[in-house]
Write a structure and sequence with these properties.
It is a single chain. This protein is an alpha+beta fold. The chain folds into three domains: 5-91, Acyl-CoA dehydrogenase/oxidase, N-terminal domain (Butyryl-Coa Dehydrogenase, subunit A, domain 1), CATH 1.10.540; 124-230, Butyryl-CoA Dehydrogenase, subunit A, domain 2 (Beta Barrel), CATH 2.40.110; 235-390, Butyryl-CoA Dehydrogenase, subunit A, domain 3 (Up-down Bundle). The protein is built from eleven helices and twelve strands. The protein has helices at residues 5-23, 39-52, 68-78, 84-88, 94-104, 107-118, 234-270, 282-309, 316-341, 352-362, 369-390, and strands spanning 32-33, 36-37, 124-127, 147-151, 154-165, 172-179, 182-189, 195-201, 212-223, 227-228, 272-273, 276-277. The strands form four sheets. The chain has a four-stranded mixed sheet, covered by helices on one side. A hairpin with a 2-residue loop joins β11 and β12. α7 packs parallel to α9 (316-341), α8 packs antiparallel against α9 (316-341) and α9 packs antiparallel against α10 (352-362). The longest helix is centred in the middle third of the chain and has 37 residues, at 234-270. The protein is globular and about 80 Å long.
């Protein structure tokens, strides 16, 4: 089922209206805590999204996924509130997990695990990152310590994981572990007594349900038919998920930065100091002008990378470039919004303060800026060596 640009624009318009009119008033709800919105709030918002016909809007009724360029239009609209992606079911890690299972899962696995995620009835978690104190995998996934050993028709998994978003309250888990063949992915039902939450970390961000947890996995038994792909396929499958997930983060936080800029602009045009509106002071007006420039550049990077992914390319290099450029640009936007609003920008009277915190964290997850630049520099060196060898 193909979808026209007009149909996508209509979907995005409905999502935007829902997020602005229905979701945004919940931003002051006491159920929004330091570890993300409470489960009761998630359920309430998703019920409203379902009634409004905007739940999981990037996946069509026939199960097909919008193109990445089309997804960008919809996810940017969902991000206009930090609660928007949670409400309409476009949030991380669920959005990336749905994409991966939809691409590589068997019909049986899709029926068992994917359907309830697409319907918004369940949340999920992606268990890959490991604690630094264990010498485990972080920015370097090859350091993975979690093991998977075959025992009859089951795999037995042991290890620890860290910064696992949404683990508390999740019903579906994708667990990455190292078998003899290499990194391997497994789908598991949650909760499971073998997967224990040691603690939920107190982090700078607070928009994702369940927060970010440190996890112990002790003798988790997973039937062999719950493996995604084959043993040793973990990194290959991660590449399928990686670039779209990086880019969807850019899409959602672009929407949040747009909203923060709207609030800061309204403040600067209304607030007076030294005999005129703040916006008429060059030091303020120029910051808002810089915001428009950064937002447009971020938008163009998102669309460019989406077009690359829509050719069927993994887009590893392009998504690294987009992730760096967009996260840094949006952080500059959020920072200026706080600065333009002065003391008001540091309070929680508006979402500007939260957007600043969330986008600061975004510069780290899905790969810190420095890791992406290091990877790009290695490619530059390889390409140069190849050019010299061909001369």
């Amino acid at each position: 089922m193909s979808v026209s640009s007009e149909q996508v624009a209509a979907i995005a318009a409905r999502v935007e209206a829902f997020v602005r009119d229905i979701v945004a008033p919940y931003e002051a709800d006491p159920r929004c805590g330091s570890h993300g919105p409470a489960e009761s709030l998630v359920v309430e918002l998703r019920a409203k999204a379902r009634a409004a016909g905007v739940l999981t809007p990037h996946i069509l009724a026939d199960g097909n996924h919008l193109s990445q360029r089309q997804t960008a239009v919809v996810l940017k609209a969902s991000g206009l509130s930090p609660l928007g992606p949670v409400a309409v079911n476009t949030a991380a890690p669920d959005e990336g997990n749905m994409y991966l299972i939809g691409k590589v899962g068997s019909p049986e696995l899709k029926s068992r695990f994917l359907d309830k995620l697409v319907s918004g009835a369940a949340r999920s978690a992606f268990f890959m990152t490991e604690p630094a104190e264990d010498g485990g995998a972080g920015s370097d996934p090859s350091m993975m310590q979690t093991t998977a050993v075959m025992d009859g028709n089951h795999w037995v998994i042991n290890g620890r994981k860290a910064f696992i978003t949404g683990a508390e309250g999740a019903a579906v888990g994708i667990v990455m572990a190292k078998s003899e063949q290499g990194a391997t992915m497994f789908l598991v039902d949650l909760p499971d007594p073998a997967i224990r939450i040691e603690r939920v970390l107190d982090t700078i961000d607070s928009s994702m349900p369940g927060g970010h947890a440190v996890i112990s996995i002790d003798n988790l038994r997973v039937p062999a038919d719950q493996m995604l792909g084959n043993s040793g396929d973990g990194f290959k499958l991660a590449q399928i998920r990686l670039s779209p997930a990086r880019l969807s983060h850019c899409m959602r936080w672009y929407g949040a930065a747009v909203r923060a800029n709207e609030i800061a602009t309204a403040y600067a045009c209304k607030r007076h100091a030294f005999g005129k509106p703040l916006v008429d002071h060059e030091g303020v007006g120029f910051q808002l002008a810089d915001n428009l420039i950064d937002l447009k550049q971020a938008e163009l990077m998102i669309d460019w990378c989406a077009d690359v992914l829509d050719t069927g390319s993994l887009g590893t290099v392009e998504s690294s470039m987009a992730k760096v450029a967009v996260s840094e640009a949006l952080f500059r936007v959020a920072d200026r919004c706080v600065q333009v609003m002065g003391g008001a920008g540091t309070t929680r009277d508006t979402i500007v303060e939260q957007v600043f915190r969330e986008i600061r964290a975004f510069r780290i997850y899905d790969g810190p800026t420095e890791v992406h630049k290091w990877s790009l520099a290695k490619k530059i060196k390889r390409d140069q060596a190849k050019r010299l060898a061909e001369q």
